[in-house]
Amino acid sequence: MPIKLVVFDMAGTTVKDENKVTDTFRSALEKHGYLVAAEAINPLMGYEKRVAITKMLHLHEQDATKITPELIDNIHKEFVSLMISYYQKAPVLEALPHAEATMAALRGMGIKIGINTGFSKNIAETIIERLQWCEKGVFDFLIGSDEVENGRPDPAMIHHLMKLAGVTDAKEVAKVGDTEVDIREGQNAGCKYVIAVTTGAFTREELEPYHPTHIIDDIAGVINIIH
Length: 227
Known about the structure:
Largest sheet: 6 strands, parallel
Oligomer: single chain
Strand content: 5-15%
CATH superfamily of the largest domain: HAD superfamily/HAD-like
Number of domains: 2
CATH topology of the largest domain: Rossmann fold
């Protein structure tokens, strides 16, 4: 059964991160009194950011009564504000090597390209605008984690992209990402291929225990896997 839709993650998969997402997440937590090491944050980067914040607070706040929806929302607002400001003003914001060419090549084969992310839609749109991906025609559909009831590893974002693409069978879908939750999202959706890349938050050794169908070091390898 041929692949009709490929769903790509953003930061660490198609967009060069330079660890800025982790740094910004850390800064948002620190502003509210929580000092968290980058090493503890990295594994959570694929999650919807409110979920990631909640997980961090439960690890670093002994008084559970302080972990309120208001606190989570305030930290998230700080993160979004810092992240949008960074992506608007960063002197250099780049796609990862071969990402744009790979997506464009797949579209040239008649395969739909979806982009999903643990970011909220406003951050994702800021990145898309800076990279001029609409003008370059490298993707078909974009969804942020705040547009569905449950973010990764729930398959809701992939299911939504399938509806947009007119795809009804998950065996016609491939998921590509750089984190544990990208892999589990693809598996939960029933994707034919769940392809992990080593260009982001996780090393090959860290990705292997989650059993993606493939692990690649260069996103261009997606073409050979699915075609």
